[in-house]
Specification:
Helix content is 66%, strand content 7%. It has 176 residues and is mostly helical.
Length: 176
């Protein structure tokens, strides 16, 4: 008992501070865990992949905006694919994992912007294949360079063998 008649605390102030600090550390770890998957848990791998993909898309969209582009990442991916191989909306939808309706809307916007032109495919007149215009080729090349430099910031520390391994692992995830 103290002179004021109160019972003495069981713990010193230093002990209480230490307990509170431990609690704060635990809460921070818990909060981190609530917002970030555990890299050591195999069950968190799908979540990790989705979050990494979303974070990379956001970073690349921001890089496009900083470069002064009015295009988003999906529109650039369409330009890149059409540059490599003239394609119809259905092929693009399958390749990019989007709906045919979404691809039709994206192609219409790119066509209105003068970046692609669509013409009937040689093998099926009902299919309209997109081809890059000269302006579309210039934009695709310019934005590819912009995104390459941004991607180097993300995976630049990986040597070429590690980058290739990452690409192969992601390709394996795609093919199931």
């Amino acid at each position: 008992m103290t002179s004021s008649g109160r019972a003495e605390p069981d713990r010193s102030v230093a002990e209480l501070v230490e307990l509170l600090e431990q609690r704060v550390r635990l809460e921070r770890r818990h909060a981190y865990r609530m917002h970030h998957p555990d890299v050591d848990l195999a069950g968190d791998l799908p979540l990790l992949l989705r979050l990494a993909s979303a974070a990379l898309d956001t970073q690349l969209d921001r890089a496009l905006a900083r470069a002064g582009s009015e295009l988003n990442l999906l529109e650039l991916e369409v330009l890149r694919r059409v540059r490599a191989r003239p394609s119809g909306g259905g092929d693009l939808a399958e390749y990019l994992g989007r709906s045919p309706q979404r691809m039709s809307a994206v192609l219409s916007g790119l066509e209105q912007g003068g970046l692609v032109e669509r013409e009937p495919a040689w093998h099926d007149q009902r299919v309209r294949q997109a081809r890059l215009t000269d302006a579309g080729l210039d934009v695709a090349d310019e934005l590819d360079a912009c995104l390459s430099s941004r991607l180097d910031l993300v995976v630049g520390d990986l040597d070429p063998v590690a980058r290739r391994a990452l690409a192969l692992l992601l390709a394996l995830v795609l093919v199931g």
